[in-house]
Write a structure and sequence with these properties.
The complex is a heterotrimer. By secondary structure, chain A is α+β, with helices and mostly antiparallel strands. Chain A has helices at about 25-30, 85-95, 105-115, 125-130, 140-160; strands spanning about 5-10, 10-20, 50-55, 55-60, 70-75. Chain A has 2 domains: about 5-80, Ubiquitin-like (UB roll), CATH 3.10.20; about 85-160, DNA polymerase, domain 1, CATH 1.10.150.120. A 5-stranded mixed beta sheet of chain A has the order 2-1-5-3-4, with helices on both faces. In chain A, helix 2 crosses helix 5. The longest helix of chain A has 18 residues, at about 140-160. Chain B is of the alpha+beta class. Chain B has 3 domains: about 30-135 and about 200-250 and about 255-290, Aldehyde oxidase/xanthine dehydrogenase, a/b hammerhead (Aldehyde Oxidoreductase, domain 3, Alpha-Beta Complex); about 295-465 and about 630-785, Aldehyde Oxidoreductase, domain 4 (2-Layer Sandwich); about 480-625, Aldehyde oxidase/xanthine dehydrogenase, molybdopterin binding domain (Aldehyde Oxidoreductase, domain 4). Chain B is built from 19 helices and 28 strands. In chain B, the strands form 7 sheets. In chain B, strands 3-5-1-12-9-10-11 form a 7-stranded mixed beta sheet, with helices on both faces. Chain B has a 5-stranded mixed beta sheet with strand order 7-15-14-13-8. The longest helix of chain B is centred in the last third of the chain and has 27 residues, at about 545-570. The radius of gyration of chain B is 28 Å and the shape is globular. By secondary structure, chain C is α+β, with helices and mostly antiparallel strands. Chain C has 12 helices and 12 strands. Chain C has helices spanning about 15-25, 35-40, 80-85, 85-90, 90-100, 105-110, 110-120, 125-130, 145-150, 215-225, 230, 250-269, and strands at about 5-10, 30, 50-55, 65, 70-75, 135-140, 140-145, 165-170, 175-180, 190-195, 200-205, 215. In chain C, a hairpin with a 2-residue loop joins strand 10 and strand 11. In chain C, about 60% of the residues are buried. Classes of the chains: A alpha+beta, B alpha+beta, C alpha+beta. Chains in contact: A-B, A-C, B-C. Chains A and B meet through helix 2, helix 3, helix 4 and helix 5 of A and helix 1 and helix 17 of B.
Chain lengths: ~170, ~800, ~270
Amino acid sequence: MKRKVALTVNGSRREDEVEPRLLLVHYLRDVAGLTGTHIGCDTSQCGACTVLVDGKAVKSCTLFAVQAQDAEVETIEGLATGDQLHPLQQAFWDNHGLQCGYCTPGFIMAGVYLLSQNPNPTDDEIRKGLEGNLCRCTGYVNIIKSVKDAAQKMGAAKGAGTPVAAGGE
Amino acid sequence: MAVTQLIGAKIHRREDPRLVSGHGRYIDDLNRPGQVYATFVRSPYAHAKIQKIDLTEAKAAAGVRAVYTAKDFQGQVAGTHPTVAAFAPEKKTVPDRFPIASGEAAYQGEIVAVVLADTKSAADDAANLVQVDYDVLPAVGDLEKALEPNSPKAHTDLADNLGWDMTLVPWEATDSAFGSAEVVVKERILQQRLAPTPMETRGVLAEYDTFDKRLTIWMSNQNPHFIRLFVGGALSLPESSVRVISQDVGGGFGSKISPYPEDYLVPAMARMGGRPVKWIETRTESIQNTTHGRGQIFDVEVAAKKDGTLLGMRLTQYLDLGAYHGTFGAFQACACVMAGGAYHWQGISARTVGVLTNKVPTDPYRGAGRPEATHLVERMLDRLAQEIGMDPIELRRKNFIQASEFPYTQNFGLVIDSGDYEKSLAKAMSIAGYDELRKRQADLRGKGRYLGIGVSTWIELCGFGPSALAGATAGVALVESAQVRVHPTGSVAVYTGTHSHGQGHETTFAQIVADTLGVPYEQVEIRHGDTNEGPSFGYGTYGSRSLAVGGMAIHRASQRVVDKAKKLAAHMLEAAEEDIVFDQGKFHVKGSPEKAKAMGEVAFAAYGAGLPEGMEHGLEAVAYFDPPNLVWPFGAHIAVVEVDPETGSVKFEKYVAVDDCGNVINPMVVEGQLHGGIVQGFSQALFEDVAYDEASGQLRTGTMLDYMVPTAVEIPDIQLDSTVTPTPVNDLGVKGIGEAGTIAASVAVINAITDAVSPFGITHVDMPASPDRLWKQIKEARGVSATSANGGGGAQA
Amino acid sequence: MIPAAFEYERATSVQQASELLQRFGEDAKVLAGGHSLIPLMRLRLSQPSALVDINPIKELDYITVEGGKLRVGALVRHVQLQNSDTVKQNLPILAEVADEVGDNQVRNLGSIGGVMAHADAAGDYPTLALILDAEIVTNKRRHAAKDFFKDIFTTPLEHDELVCEVVFPIANGPHKYIKFRRRLFDWAIVGAAAQKVDGGWRIGLTNVGPTPVRSTAVEQALASGASPADAAEHASDGLNPSADLRASADYKKHLARVLTRRAIEQASA
């Protein structure tokens, strides 16, 4: 039996009738037509489906769409303004942080979350912040470099050292 | 050459804006009106007789359009799965393979039925309602047992499990080398099965126009033209009626070269049911059904003098074919012809044995045969160095083919184009601080800590392939095609028969064209992956061939355009052709650079009135490049690890790689290829392993939880550098780099680990060097009880 | 694969969740963080007839200290435990363990109650709960941790019983949890916990049997003055771990000893 779900995706309010078994990732791709969020596994390892739900990075393959009732969901498509890329997108481009590009939206969303929690991460903190995402092309080297570059540029833009509340209680 | 500002430049990839913004077009992003979804019902057993299939419930389920079994495809799909000869042409047993099992399933995951339904969920629901009665048969798993006369057979109607048995060079040929040996070292080296694991799984979307009788297939694939050839043939459609499109492809690593059962069945069902059919592989299906790489055992013997002079090698490759021959599976036998590596040998004897088992077929995976060759020869050199008490680098230097010897004909008659192995090794040693490392290693050993230094002075053959070497390259000429079209207003569209799925061809090929034609880079568009565009046939991407063969075809076609434009420019400038100079993208008369015609102006003229007499209109060209030889990249990698002997854990300290792929078109892309390649080799050395239950043949690593691909946390820091030794084989002086990192890395890591634990008397470590395996090996080597809690210290051999 | 169809209801109170579970019957399951359940459903290894989504229950989301105990609501996510000053001050080992569960995305959704109810042998919190004599409080009763983890994936929870809270003692003395695994986001191959409580050591092990294990032999040896190395030799006493893809039984027993010794040493350092 279908259920109504109402949520905000990339700033737009939506209401749809969905089967409870519809995963959020399938909702985003097949119902909302946002195919930038990808599926790379069945068991919550690969992180290709990472989106932000109420500002927190989650794997949208491990959440039913009905659970996103009243949530604010942000996908890769919501980051750029027109053709003006988000600093993380730009940094992945500048640093060759992608090859086939399939895992990239998930990495960028995980990176957006990481930098929201820790705007000035060390290399090790970046590695740990991306542990929920798998890439098979880049060997991660340039992904780490991309996130670091974005952190520096975003920090410079904001005025370095701006404290940001850690996520939690 | 017109302009040389783009070749060699770090140009940011033009592919990236669409990919970083979520606007790539991967197979699952595509849909067709009225499409239905396929879910395959697969054998849960490694080997079983299919007694009965009951479709009643499945057919009655909501949303179901059709449920098919093997008999429904009789007359729809013809022939057996293609297999090519490559390096092991003397096939013994080649089981016929129909894309859907009828009667007997020979590996876990083999298709036995398929459901078509209106939604993915309805197809999945109904697939679970298909009732299949199986009679479970004994499964063939172990390669050696499979060759025993009383072994069960991978297919019940086989006489034996011997897929091929071919001696490339007989043992007698190395009798004198072994007869004069002062030392002989032997080892059995395992190459575990690997799942290629591109982040995007496979997928097929097919649409058949019943009235025009045209078939369009969208799929995630490395060589659409081959799919058109194979699938068109099997479906009895002329190639002109079949269009195959691979847009953005989320990684391949060799696993998206060969045709798969689904590649035939999905288009066949689109024709049978008159509706577009879509199928997207799940990750579990991928690990279970997409061809695996490696899966080999090598028995190797090396004969040498005590001063380290290499004399001879004898090797036998046992290759786990799986239940059927992979289309290009025999290519992996090239491990034998590459076994000599970068060194002089009096002789090498080699035999390859292909063994049929009840597992998914093996086929090329990044490196395909060459990582195995590097692994075995570099491992054996370390083994020998340890035996005779020589520094492993000293041993390598003593036996290197020298820079002055190229072109060098190696033991199997292949000609190595160019190289300078000493140079890359010296550079790597200097970056790594090799001598200092050896000192530190000695100090740490005194403190009960186990540092290990591993070297891999790898070489590779790639750039498949010259038609003259068709015997080695699958029996077909693997040349490449390109078409260059200069439009009237000067923009350029280039069509290549290779395919890009992460390698950045849209950028690097445009760099070549812009320089060759002298047009702005922004005006060059590279197109690939659609068989309806460009030349009649393309050969695809594998074997690090795209640049050395495909790039050269583009270069040739561009040069043809320049040649014609020059004639026309001469006419426009009212000069003789031989007086025309092409420089910085403009044609001018020698001595009068101020009166120049740009390529765009010439192009406009080429489509208008006033052409010289006898000249046809248009400015475009097609070229097929047949390389005169393969190309041979090389390099030196040094891995430094520390082993915790108490837990068997391996910690990385550094990884240095100095590689040489000849001239470089875009250094940023080359570095990216190396990073990824190295991590895949590293990952084989430490993590990845497709595990099957020995008794039942059931896959034990069917998810990404169990099949371990490392994350950003586990990978080592990688320091790259390069040397440049151009190849004389092509005008660009380029070699391939896509597989190099993988070819080099696994053995650098394993040599470092073996070196670390050598004080325990360990001479060889197999892959993956997991903590449990390493702990067990150390424990056994120490010959002491594992209950010693203070295992860390004092175990110097 | 797409999960099999199920009925879905959202609960906003424990009372409502309990009623829904009663209504749906035995084949219904509770949906909390979903990180164990949903992958199983996607592989169709689990096909519940209904899911009761307890995520909207606000009353299960709290971390407090009361009566000398740390009380953690069942819907507290790993990320909250990881970052909570209350947890860091009163039971720092819990914050450290939370930091090592899964990855950022998993920690943002996965909940402590879900881990307890799922009772995976490789779960880290159950080991802490066991050695600290924590209580698992449900809508029906209070379970001592030692009576809660019955077998692998097996607890005394009835089908309409909901984990509401986990109550830990306050313990901010020397402690260390070592989670040995291949990749940072993996489950433990073996985990070892050492926590000093009221001057005595509590020692526990993860994934060396169907349930978490409290190493009383090690605790006793330490109490009678044995060195960490000597005491840790007892960590494998009576263990009968099953081999899996990552480790043989012998290796797990070996790791139990080595990691126990290291945990005690590092906690004491």
